[in-house]
Amino acid sequence: MTSSGQRRCGDCTLCCKVMAIETLAKPASSWCAHCKPGRGCAIYDTRPAECETFACLWLVNDLLDERWKPSRSKLVLTTSDDGIEIRCDAGSPNAWRKEPYASEIRAWAEQGERNDMTVVVIVGPRMILITPEHEFDLGIVGPDERIVRELEGTKVVGATVMKASELGASPEVSGMRLTARRS
Ligand code: SF4
Ligand code: SF4
């Protein structure tokens, strides 16, 4: 965690739970051993670079109001090459279905479908691709797997998970789009 010019993490430490920290071999959805939940990092001055450089979207984007502060929403938002990732605190697995979050997430999905961007909710190990009309529960997507969207025009009509090795390097396979795997 870090701080932006305007906002501060304050009492929020949720990224220290929901994010995987490779340097520490810390899996996603479990508290970091160095975290004092609600208070901060016990090794702040020597924390890994990936912690030092991390900033969730709420911290850096004033368009997300105070209701989106992760300690309040139970949601940590980040961007990826493909769109928006919404990591939900596994202790509140339905937080993303509450308002105002659900409506906003749906609106992002509508914009995303028009602009070839994805909106993915991640709850514990589960990934759910959100589209204007569907929720594609993809289950656990491994590091060697990719989300494959089936498109009709810009409309997402299907989604599945396939081994990266079966797909080759192309980002587009006969009407399908691949979504990069995140940790
Ligand atoms: S989730 Fe965001 S606001 Fe909360 S501690 Fe991490 S970077 Fe700070
Ligand atoms: S090392 Fe500190 S900043 Fe990094 S995840 Fe652990 S508690 Fe959070």
UniProtKB/TrEMBL annotation:
PANTHER family: UPF0153 PROTEIN YEIW (PTHR36931:SF1). It comes from the Bacteria. This is YkgJ family cysteine cluster protein. It comes from Bradyrhizobium campsiandrae.
